[in-house]
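Data availability (excerpt). The following record was deposited with the supplementary files.
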Amino acid sequence: MTIRVLVADDHAAVRAGLVLILGGASDVEVVGEATDGEQAVAMARELKPDVVVMDVRMPRMDGIAATEALRGVVDVLILTTFDVDEYVFGALQAGAAGFLLKNTDAEALIDAVRIVARGDGLISPAVTRRLIARFARAVPAESTTLDLSQLTPREKEVFAALGRGAANAEIAAELGMAEATVKTHVSRVLAKLGLRSRVHAAIRAREAGLA
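Predicted structure:
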């Protein structure tokens, strides 16, 4: 299956480099280029790519606001130069499926696009520990309990698997279902429990004692 990708970055040279790298993969097709957040949102809704590779700092609408606008429409992989906690935390709050730094090598970037296209999440190893610590501090203040009664038995199993850090392929193998079905269950769990991302879900599942 070919993964259709939209690249959003306000620097022409960076966009050209990303298009060259991603377009060089046999299973990736770059279907469009956006120069700012507003254009990225409009093009994503029109072209319906599988993944948007999104910069953070862009004119008119930044990448985090654009990611929020595309929540539920398309999976977004944030790719930025700036290793700043506010960007990481803000991007995942907005619903980004992944966060990488631009010093990531070409093969890792292509692999990240594949991971996000499968419906899994990905965070740059350079920021993972800080991110988990911040989520752990922030989440308990939101609510002490989750209403798990609204989940079906299968959704509870998927939620527990998220708490163990399992990827969609692992959940599919464990529960005997297709990866596409797992992706649907994950989306329903996030929506029913009001969770922002897989990372958020994993932390809340551990807090609930499901992992």
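Summary of structural features: The CA atoms of residues 172 and 179 lie 5 Å apart.
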